[in-house]
Write a structure and sequence with these properties.
The protein is of the alpha+beta class. The protein has helices spanning about 15-35, 75-80, 85-95, 100-105, 105-120, 155-180, 200-210, and strands at about 1-5, 50-55, 70-75, 135, 140, 140-145, 150, 185-195, 215, 230-235, 240-250, 255-260, 275-280.
Length: about 290
């Protein structure tokens, strides 16, 4: 894992009228969502949806910075069962973000400090060893006197949280783009990487050339919202075939490939050597 620098400042502002309007729209979206999708998106539609899950997790963003219209119908068990992984992954995604302006922003600093304290308190073994982190003094072909980033070893708990988020985000974005819930009859593969690492350029280029649609997360009530979450996607209706690549800020990228019932297992591009999983793999698959 590469950790970015935290040394600049950016400002943002909100209008209270816009905030109230955003809250009203959010309530209306939640009611509409549960009416439209009465079953859980993450356990394959096996259980009734009684709560709203936020994907990407709210913990990945400062308070009230969560991008709008990324809410999904979930059963209580799938929603609550993801809390540990949501918190650990949020810390990973923020630490690996290379947006210097964002990390100088007050709300971002508060969120990062809060996550560090929460993970230390709740899941201390998930914390990376910052004391053992190594400075990286190279940006492209240029060597620098001061580190441009730090390399820290990811813990098993952080790797587990990242794997969990791969499946969670794949299920969520499939529903958002396709309008259907992934079932156990679907097959998918997913992965995560940092584009700042060597030998990842070809993978990023692969998704850029393959995926035609770009969606950028936003909150209209926040000025200078910044680059926080976006994804590219593509879907073939006839085959029920879905591909996406989502980036958290300027840091880690999660990608996924979904094949509908009756299709061959995904074996293109980065999925060629990976074992596919069945859809509906949330924490609670029992009706």
């Amino acid at each position: 894992m590469l950790v970015g620098k935290l040394n600049t400042h950016a400002e943002s502002g909100t209008d209270m009228g816009q905030v109230q309007q955003a809250k009203k729209r959010r309530r209306e979206r939640r009611n509409d969502l549960l009416n439209k999708y009465p079953f859980c998106y993450f356990c394959g539609g096996l259980n009734p949806a009684t709560t709203i899950d936020h994907v990407p997790p709210e913990a990945c963003f400062p308070k009230a910075y969560y991008p709008e219209e990324f809410e999904f119908p979930a059963c209580f068990s799938c929603n609550q069962g993801a809390r540990k992984h949501d918190q650990i992954f949020a810390l990973y995604s923020i630490l690996s973000d290379f947006d210097d302006q964002k990390f100088g922003n007050g709300p971002d600093r508060v969120r990062l400090d809060g996550l560090i304290n929460a993970v230390k308190r709740n899941y201390p073994s998930a914390m990376p060893d910052f004391d053992a982190a190594k400075g990286i003094h190279r940006s492209g072909h240029i060597y620098t006197s001061q580190p441009v980033a730090y390399s820290a070893k990811t813990t098993p708990e952080m790797q587990e949280a990242a794997k969990f988020m791969e499946g969670k985000l794949t299920h969520a974005l499939y529903l958002r783009e396709v309008g259907k819930i992934m079932t156990p009859a679907h097959r998918f593969v997913a992965g995560i990487y940092q584009p700042q690492l060597d030998h990842t350029g070809a993978l990023t280029e692969y998704f850029q050339n393959l995926l035609p649609n770009v969606t950028i997360g936003a909150r209209p009530n926040i000025k200078a919202y910044g680059d926080r979450f976006r994804y590219m996607s593509g879907y073939k209706d006839a085959e029920d075939f879905f591909v996406f690549a989502a980036q958290f800020g300027r840091g880690c990228i999660i990608w996924g490939i979904v094949c509908g019932p009756g299709m061959r297992d995904p074996n293109i591009g980065p999925a060629g050597s990976m074992k596919p999983k069945a859809g509906g793999c949330g924490p609670d698959r029992t009706p």
